[in-house]
Specification:
20 strands; single chain; Rossmann fold; binds cytidine-5'-monophosphate; eight-stranded mixed sheet; six-stranded parallel sheet; alpha/beta
Length: about 400
């Protein structure tokens, strides 16, 4: 059920644009508010008048001849989902590079909600390496893709490139919007990646964390409508669409950024691999090589999660425990209790197939009164399960925070 949701329908210039009247009509049938934004070439296939006639609440075709001075900001504000159907190779390339040269592309940059695109083009254009690379970039940013389907194309060929059917697109929008209700209005701090503790101005101690688990968590929380601040150690990953991303290096920087936001937050997910030790006195400049051994003193770094747990009030705290050897579950449970957490996710880091830097993991979700194993799966699907578990376990608490 979409009811009372604001949906933005972006239309770019492919022949499948003729199906957009059906999309608008179906969305109106579900009581959605539908704001249409069209590119110039889309108007060659379907007119603004047609879309208004089937119920669109507004149709924007330009940034300049609109009632509003800033139509892209007004349209993007408070939208629950945006869908671009059809999405041509051209619009996909523009989105991948962040070009904003018309009302549609500018609106996309101002979005703060999930973006779904329904590609539609000739098979060769779809399979062109440039298009495929652009699709990969969009996927890595959390953009959802539906289709294209195999079938008869406008050029007469049979192949892959047909836009998905309007009803399938509507079903996908419903899926995205129904999930979005679950955490809307909730503010999460998610930490990701590893920290680096300087030894001198050149060297540091760090760890092999890639940041993938924390980034997946941020993506899944955003999909459910949460506001997310993602605080991450050095990583090449692209921040998911719609979150505040803060890049840090040391434990102290991470602690500062977390504490700055802690009071305003509803929940913290500490997926970062935070250094337990740091150098007592990092050296100015570069430590010179000498013949003998080099003795360095390490002192404990602040345990951020423990500090949060000690002053938790009604927040929800989730930690991760990277463990080796036997009794992984027991060790993680001890941390859950010591750090005063709601949930801890235990994972093995002495198995090369999973864990650090892999796209896969095998974890156990532990709360005070439950234990649930998730077999080897992608970090995205593990994040999905953690978020579901979290919503299930904390429904009552969430209502009160
Ligand atoms: O005690 P341990 O480091 O194994 O606990 C892991 C959990 O604690 C993780 O969620 C990690 O992000 C967090 N942590 C922290 N500050 C530290 C070390 C770990 O917040 N200095």
């Amino acid at each position: 059920m979409i009811g009372n949701f604001k949906v933005i329908l972006g239309i770019s210039g492919g022949i499948a644009a003729i199906k957009c009247a059906d999309i608008v009509r179906d969305l109106k049938g579900l009581s959605a508010k539908v704001l249409v934004v069209m590119t110039k070439s889309a108007q060659e296939f379907v007119t603004p008048t047609t879309l208004t006639a089937v119920g669109a609440d507004s149709v924007t075709t330009s940034l300049f001849n609109d009632k509003s001075d800033m139509p892209h900001i007004d349209i993007a504000k408070d939208a629950q989902v945006m869908v671009i159907a059809p999405a041509t190779a051209n619009i996909i390339a523009k989105l991948a590079t962040g070009i904003a040269d018309d009302a549609l592309t500018t609106t996309v940059l101002a979005l703060n909600c999930p973006l779904l695109i329904a590609p539609s083009m000739n098979e060769s254009m779809w399979q062109n390496v440039a298009t495929q690379k652009n699709i990969e970039i969009l996927k890595s940013r959390g953009v959802k893709i539906i289709g294209p389907e195999i079938g008869k194309l406008a050029c007469g060929d049979i192949g892959i490139g047909r836009m998905s059917e309007p009803l399938d697109i509507i079903r996908r929008i419903e899926e995205l919007t129904s999930k979005r209700d679950q955490l809307s209005g909730k503010y999460f701090i998610v930490t990701a990646g590893g920290t680096r503790e300087p030894l001198d101005e050149i060297r540091y101690i760090g760890n092999r964390s890639s940041g993938k688990m924390g980034f997946s968590m941020a993506r899944k929380l955003l999909e459910r409508g949460a506001k997310v601040s993602l605080i991450t150690g050095p990583t090449e990953l692209t921040a998911p669409f719609g979150c505040e991303c803060i890049r840090i290096e040391t434990v102290d920087e991470l602690r500062d950024e977390v504490l700055k936001r802690y009071d305003a937050s509803d929940a913290v997910v500490m997926a970062a691999a935070v250094s337990d030790y740091r150098f007592k006195k990092p050296v100015q400049g570069k430590i010179k090589k000498s013949e003998g051994p080099l003795n360095l003193t390490l002192v404990p770094a602040p345990d951020i999660l423990k500090e949060l747990g000690d002053r938790r009030s009604n927040k929800i705290l989730i930690g991760f425990a990277a463990e080796c050897g036997d009794d992984i579950e027991k060790k993680a449970r001890e941390k859950l209790e010591k750090k005063n957490l709601d949930m801890i996710i235990a994972n093995r880091v002495d198995d090369d197939r999973i864990g650090f830097d892999s796209d896969y993991n095998e974890v156990t979700m532990i709360t005070l009164d439950s234990v649930e194993k998730i077999p080897i799966s992608s970090k995205d699907s593990i994040a999905e399960k953690i978020v579901e578990k979290f919503i299930f376990l904390k429904e009552k608490a969430l209502r009160s925070i």
